[in-house]
Amino acid sequence: MAGLNPDSPIPTEIKLHQKSRILELAFENGERFELTYEFLRVFTPSAEARGHGPGQEKLQIGKRDVDIVSIEPVGNYAIKPVFSDGHDSGLYSWDVLHNLCVHRDELWQAYLDKLAAEGGSRDLADCPAPAVKPPPSCGSKH
Questions:
Q1: How high is the pLDDT of residue 2?
Q2: In 3D, which of 133, 5, 3, 124 has the Cα closest to residue 65?
Q3: Is the pLDDT of residue 132 over 70?
Q4: How far does Cα 44 stand from its chain's mean position?
Q5: Burial class (CB in 10 A: 0-12, 13-18, 19+), 135
Q6: CA dist., res. 140 & res. 129, Å (int)
Q7: Which residue among 8, 56, 85, 93 is least crowded, i.e. fewest CB within 10 A of its CB?
Q8: Domain ranges of the chain
């Protein structure tokens, strides 16, 4: 079984390069690719980031310095990276990974364009702190 699509190439090698923050992939068809940890985090297939349909995507900001802490295999069809920002719900099937590899440059440019249009930043220090909802005050009606 390849990915979720039976025609997807299967990775024969998956290497983490911690210093350069690169995931190196070799596929059974001879293709080799490198994806940055930031790219993988930005393009997580997780519903938390992608939503459940078109238009529900959340722009991922402040991910430039994210690390991959570990990678867990998921059956014979995917991997689940655990990122240093706590994100661990993205399952990267072989077909998703191969698609990210093949379309890396145009996906990255589209991301940079959207980030610029929305005033976002790749750097965490430049991102606003998440809004925290204050607890209800004593005696208030909910």
A1: 52
A2: 124
A3: no
A4: 3
A5: exposed
A6: 26
A7: 56
A8: 11-126
Q: Are 21 and 84 in contact (CB under 8 A)?
A: no
Give me the pLDDT at residue 59, please: 92
Q: d(Cα 33, Cα 14) in Å, to the nearest integer?
A: 10
The model's pTM is 0.84
The C-alpha angle 87, 93, 96, rounded to 5 degrees, equals 90
Give the tens place of pLDDT for each residue, 9-60: 999 999 999 999 999 999 999 999 999 999 999 999 998 888 777 777 899 9
CATH of domain 11-126: 3.30.2020.30
Output the CA–CA distances (angstroms, integers) from residue 32 to 1, 58, 73, 103, 131, in the order listed: 20, 29, 20, 13, 41
